[in-house]
Write a structure and sequence with these properties.
This protein has about 240 residues and is mainly β. Helices cover about 10% and strands about 35% of the residues. The strands form 5 sheets. The protein has a 7-stranded antiparallel β-sheet, with no helix packed on it. Strands 1-3-2-5-4 form a 5-stranded mixed β-sheet. A two-stranded antiparallel ribbon has the order 6-18. Strand 15 and strand 16 form a beta hairpin.
């Protein structure tokens, strides 16, 4: 039984090693938490971190190294732990994308993202280290992910509701339009008369997530208890910064 167990572990580690040494396609995934596939890029391409869960082969040279732990191939105890490494740059903005961040205290330079990077969750303002990347196309706010994620604003239950939650979905929004004015993000819908289209709220939940809401009222007026007024802005620096 012990011998069979060791053989299984050896085969698993060998399989993980072969996968790690194989080459991803151009613009293909090459790393991220839990990734067990190829970690090398074609000649002239480098593995660049998009977020903690996704790295992508992009044109150009690498400027650093990230360690990727394979959950399926890792073992502990007498057999040790197996890890694969891939050359990567720091999290670099992809062509045509933007970071989105708030600019007012207490959430100065918090960045728009999912609670779990790249997943269908509520929209939050979080650390620059896990900042997502975005495009606004056809009125949709689209988070760079595989598959892409779309910002969804909840329906207004009645006229007394003055803030609407924002979440991510793998299907496009069917109501409302995202746009930008200068470098600020706006949201509008014909059925709601908003006095300020770029007014947002950040409201922490009981788990410490800084949830993003559309503010249907005036900026910095009758702010809901526990929330902070914010505007959110495109940022097109090479990397997200605090």
């Amino acid at each position: 039984m012990v011998k069979s167990y060791k053989i299984c572990i050896t085969v698993a580690l060998a399989f993980a090693y072969v996968n790690a040494q194989s080459t991803a396609s151009q613009y293909g995934q090459c790393g991220g938490i839990g990734w067990t596939g190829a970690t090398l890029c074609p000649s002239g391409w480098s593995c660049n971190v998009v977020n903690a869960y996704y790295s992508q082969c992009l044109p150009g040279g690498a400027t650093g190294t990230a360690t990727l732990t394979s959950s399926s191939a890792s073992t502990s105890g007498s057999t040790g732990t197996s890890t694969a490494t891939a050359p990567v740059a720091t999290s670099t903005l992809l062509p045509g994308n933007s970071f989105i961040r708030s600019v007012e205290d207490p959430y100065f330079h918090y960045y728009l993202q999912s609670i779990t990077p790249g997943n269908v969750t509520a929209a939050i303002m979080g650390s620059y280290t896990s900042a997502a990347q975005f495009q606004v196309t056809g009125g949709q706010l689209i988070q760079e992910s595989t598959p892409p994620l779309y910002a969804i604003v909840e329906d207004r239950a009645n006229s007394t509701v003055m803030k609407l939650g924002v979440s991510w979905s793998d299907t496009p929004a069917t109501g409302g339009t995202f746009d930008f004015s200068g470098d600020t993000i706006e949201w509008s819908i014909p059925t709601i008369d908003r006095p300020q289209l770029n007014a947002w709220l950040v409201c922490p939940d009981s788990d410490g997530n800084n949830l993003l809401f559309v503010n249907l009222g005036y900026y910095d007026y009758e702010t809901p208890t526990g929330c902070a007024d914010e505007t959110i802005h495109f940022y097109t620096g090479a990397t997200a910064v605090p």
